[in-house]
Amino acid sequence: MAGYQEDERFLDAIADAEPYPYWMEDVDEPDSNPMLVRDDSCDLCIVGGGYTGLWTSILAKERNPSADVILIDSHEVGSAASGRNGGFMNSSLTHGIANAQQRFPKEVGLLEDLGLENLNQIEAAIRRYNIDCDFERNGVIDIASTRHSANYLDEMREDYEQLLELGHKVEWLDQQAVQREVASPIFTGGMWCKDTAALVDPARLVWGLKSAAESLGVRIYEDTRATGLDYAGSGVSIETALADIKAKHVALATNAFKPLLKRMHNYIAPVYDYCLVTEPLNAQQLDSLGWKNRQGLSDISNQFHYYRLTADNRILWGGYDAMYFFGGKMSVDLESRPESWAKLSQHFFETFPQLEGVKFSHVWGGAIDTCSRYSVFWGQAMRNRVAYAIGYTGLGVASSRFGAEVMLDLLDGRKTQATQTKFVQSKPLPFPPEPFRFIGIQTTRWALSREDRTGKRNLWLRTLDRLGLGFDS
Length: 473
Known about the structure:
The protein is an alpha/beta fold. Among the domains are: 31-139 and 196-268 and 371-431, 3-Layer(bba) Sandwich (FAD/NAD(P)-binding domain), CATH 3.50.50; 436-467. It has helices spanning 8-12, 51-63, 81-84, 97-103, 108-128, 151-165, 175-181, 202-215, 283-289, 338-351, 396-412, 422-425, 436-454, 459-467; strands spanning 40-47, 69-72, 88-90, 140-145, 170-173, 187-193, 197-199, 219-221, 226-231, 236-240, 244-252, 269-278, 296-299, 305-309, 315-324, 360-370, 377-381, 386-390. Strands 1, 2, 8, 9, 10, 11, 17 and 18 form an 8-stranded mixed sheet that branches. Helix 2 (51-63) runs parallel beside helix 8, helix 2 crosses helix 11 (396-412) and helix 5 (108-128) crosses helix 11 (396-412).
């Protein structure tokens, strides 16, 4: 911590923060559901109670109201990534148009259309089920700043021109224009994507989806960890600690947690992301920022920050550090990382020096299901009785619904526009085994940081590009 001693104000700002997700401090949190204690059966069993699992249950019941659907979660529904993320709901299914252009160049237009329609369907469902989640469709600004290489501004201009060609509502912001939107001395430009992003309270969204699922007749069991799968002739047996479930079909929505299928192990690397939230800003502090249009903001660098206003005018500030621990270790202890919180606090006040003296009320962390192509992928097993959708790499708040829809299509054997794409039919390259995985990820993090400073993509990164491998913060 010696590097922070000259700037103790950044440390003071986090000193009294609660190490707990801000979104979870809500009086509207629903009551817990019972655990499964006796054997059961159903048409569809969903393993995982985050966004993907909940959307799968809702869409399954909307398609077939008479279907018997069970959802199980090892803890409480929404207690992992779905309830503690930044609340950015981006229409991109591919972690941005540049990534789509690199990996699926013939499908960019279709994937953008599918993503936008998916976001529209989410907005419609929020209204239909009367979900109170502070939904704001104000768009997002991709931010260039003095922290980044000037090359990144040119790359963002290419994205802007391509988005315009595809018919998106997007506005280019030069330095003066971006400063008028949000005042920061380090901002040098931006791209405001107006129709492709929204903000939500992620915990209220997940609780609202849970309520919607139950209203449709979905049976939900919490504190029920799936420990194994067995093909049982006419279906699949899901083992839990106290009871088994016999299901005709199974949808796996386990995110960063250890997969139940061995074939999935090398495709996912759990990466920890960290976040801060300020105390509510007063009128004078808000005026010093501008930010009248309340867009979400995100840096365009490899190691990026994401930031936004909450409904009660706090600033959520997260990202930058993306920590992978040897062996893909996951534990509650890793959700606390004071050195990352200190770094984020320092960056916050470098970005908004006019907010000196503001304190952070909450600090927390959580695991992201990272894959080498940065976007969700699918697969099937056990004679197509089991399907999975994982690998969102931090951009799953909206794309989780699309992941669920495709998973159901695969289980039903439907041929749709989506299921016929290379995007759905292909998989990312797997990560290597340890210790090469750890060494490779740490080397990549160093190289990405160097590129942010210098604008030069070294031999290591160029090699990964050729191999189709990647690691994103």
